[in-house]
Amino acid sequence: MKNRVITVIAAFMIGLTLTACGSGEPASAPSIAETDKAAVQEKLNKRESKSDETQADDNESDESTAATHAETDTPTDSDGNNILVAYFSRADENYNVGTIDKGNTQIVAEFIASEVGADSFHIETVTPYPADYDDCCDVAKQELADKARPEIQGGVENMEQYDIVFLGYPIWWGDMPMAVYTFMDNYDFSDKVVIPFNTHEGSGESGTYSAIGSYLPNAQVLDGMAIQGQTAQEFSSDTQQSVRDWLDGLGF
Ligand SMILES: Cc1cc2nc3c(=O)[nH]c(=O)nc-3n(C[C@H](O)[C@H](O)[C@H](O)COP(=O)(O)O)c2cc1C
C-alpha cells in the first residue's frame, strides 16, 4: 500500500518539478491580485469599526465569543474579532516527516493566527484517523470515493462574527480531506472572504482553491498559499517568514 501511495505522490512531485516550483525549499509568497487585496482591505476596515464599537461596549459584557476550540496563543478577547483560522491537520505518522506531534498544516495555521490576531478552530473528526500512515491513506481514499462527510467535533459558536476565514488543510489524494467539506457544509459563508492555505508533498494546491470557490459560491474565495509539509515541519522560521510575506502582500 505504501508503495502505491508513494507512487501517486511521486507522480505529483515530478509534475511539480517540471513546472519549476521545486520542493524542499521555503515557499515563496505567491503573487497577489489587486482584487484580493481590496477584498481583504474592505473586511479589515470593518474590523476596525467593529473594534471601536466593542471598546465602547466593553464594560457591558465580557463573554467570550471565540470559536469553541480557540487556541491558547490567539487573543483571549475575541469581541469584535472578525478573522478566523479554521484548519484540518493530522499529527502522527506522515509522509516525509515520520511521526510528528503537531501536523504540518497546524504549524502554518498557528503562524497565520498569531500574525493576524485571529481566533482558531481545529477541524477534527469525531472518529479519529488512524495514526499509521498507510491505514490513514486507506481510510482517506475510501472517504474520497464515497464523497463522505465525516462528522466534526464541536463547532464555531459565532460564525456570523467572522468576515475573513482562513481555511487550511493538507492535500489528501489530490483533494481536501472530506472533513473540510463537512466544515464548509456546516456554515453559511455568504459575503465572507475565504482565504485557503494548504500543505502537501508535491501536489501544490491541486486545484482545491477553485474547488472551494465552486463549493462556496456566495463567498469571495481568494487565491491561497501552498507550502510543502516537510518544509513547514522542519524549517519553521523560513515558513514563518513566507507566511508573513504572503500576509503582508494581502494587506494584513
Ligand atoms: C491520506 C493522505 C493522502 C495524501 N495525499 C497526498 C497527495 O495526493 N498529494 C500530496 O502532495 N501529498 C499528499 N499527502 C501528504 C500531505 O498532504 C502532507 O504530508 C501534509 O503536509 C500533511 O499535513 P498535516 O500534517 O497538516 O495533516 C497525503 C497524506 C495523507 C496522510
How do the strands and helices of this protein lay out in sequence?
Elements: H1 2-18, H2 34-57, E1 83-88, E2 92-94, E3 98-100, H3 104-116, E4 119-123, H4 133-146, E5 164-170, H5 178-186, E6 193-200, H6 208-215, E7 220-221, E8 225-228, H7 229-234, H8 236-250
Parallel strand pairs: 1-4, 1-5, 5-6, 6-7, 6-8
Antiparallel strand pairs: 2-3
Helix pairs in contact: 3-8
The structure holds flavin mononucleotide (FMN).
Flavin mononucleotide binds next to helix 1, helix 3, helix 4 and strand 6.
Describe this structure as you would to a colleague.
The chain is of the alpha/beta class and 252 residues long. The protein has helices spanning 2-18, 34-57, 104-116, 133-146, 178-186, 208-215, 229-234, 236-250; strands at 83-88, 92-94, 98-100, 119-123, 164-170, 193-200, 220-221, 225-228. Strands 1, 4, 5, 6, 7 and 8 form a six-stranded parallel sheet that branches. Strand 5 (164-170), helix 5 (178-186) and strand 6 form a beta-alpha-beta unit. Helix 3 packs across helix 8 (236-250). The longest helix has 24 residues, at 34-57. The radius of gyration is 18 Å and the shape is globular. It starts with a helix and ends with a helix. Bound molecules: flavin mononucleotide.
